[in-house]
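Q: My labmate handed me this sequence with no annotations at all. I'd like to see what the chain might look like in three dimensions before we decide whether it's worth expressing. Could you predict it?
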Amino acid sequence: MNPALPDRLVLYDGVCGFCNASVQWLVAHDRAGRLRYAPLQGSTAAALRARLPEIPSDIDTIVFIEGGEVLLRSRAAFRIVRQLPAPWGWLGATAVLPTFLTDAGYRLVAAVRYRIWGRLAACRVPAAHEQELFLP
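A: Here is what I predict for the chain of 136 residues:
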């Protein structure tokens, strides 16, 4: 059974302290509730990988799926923040920077994220008021 694909889905490392803090920040600032979230370690991501082979199997890459388009790393981050209201959405304008530079910065943060922000024992369980935003 394939899960229905939400219009805007963020796939993130569910045990990364930085990634979880980032998702919590997005939930707090996405007042319109445009974004949905699923951990890369979950069943939703596994099912989507079978349908969308461009989704990497590793958990070092944030993935944003919008309208069937798969974006990775910095391109995903830029498109995600564009979903937010001003002034946060304006950060998406940084997408004009060269991808080789922004992805290099992304890879640097990804390489040290566990050392700086820690690793959770398990994927976080959403609060009751957030459950509709999260997929397994």
